[in-house]
Structures are given as C-alpha cells and as structure tokens.
Amino acid sequence: MEQKQDNRYNNLSSYAKELHENNKKRIKISGIVLLLLPVVLGLIRWMTDSDKTVFLMIWVLCMFVLSVYLVSVEYLDHVLQKRINGMSNSEEHYDSLLDGEEIIPDKVKEMVRDRLDSDPANDAEKGGDE
User: How many Å apart are CA 12 and CA 65, to the nearest integer?
Assistant: First the structure.
C-alpha cells in the first residue's frame, strides 16, 4: 500500500516538474509576443494606412490579455508548488519561472527584513533614515 502511495507521489511530482518547465516556456513565448506585437501592429497599420486609435486600442487590449495570462500562469504554478509541498511536508522550492539572477539582491532583502523587524519607536529616535 505504501509503495503504491510512493509511486503516486513520484508520478505527481514528476508531472508537477514537467508542468513547471512548460510554464517557463509559456512565459518565454509571452515575452516574445509582448515584443513582437507592437511591431506587427505597426506594420499592419502602415500597410493599410488605417486609423491610429483603433490600433492603439487593439494593442492595449492585447497587453491586458497577455498580462492576465502571465498572472494566471504564475498563480497556477504557485498553487501547484504549495500543494506538492503540503503533500510531502517539505519546503522544496522549484526554480524561478524567470531565467537569470534574482531581480532583488539578497542584501536589499536583508535591509528590508531588518526594517520590518525593527521597532518604529527606535527609528523615530534615530531620526528616520540612516
């Protein structure tokens, strides 16, 4: 029975990792679309000599749709990670959906954490900012 549960967990874990990798690909493709969309719309507008306002509205609408899509991909990935961690009783973290280094350096995170943990009365005595 326990082997069957371990097998199910391993299958679910491998599915979650595969889905995480697919989410990374989705974000990359969305970034490419975000870059190419204005160029394509500009070319179509130039070729047809149409009204600028219509293409601007289409562009803004597409940006909203892509933003909602990207937020939903990130949210679903986050929920999946929480469920896997809840089932395994561990705090295993997947790598970031975005490639490259973290945007916020560790030193800045430590400064913010220290500010949040400090007592506001002590900050007022020090004169606010250091």
Answer: 30
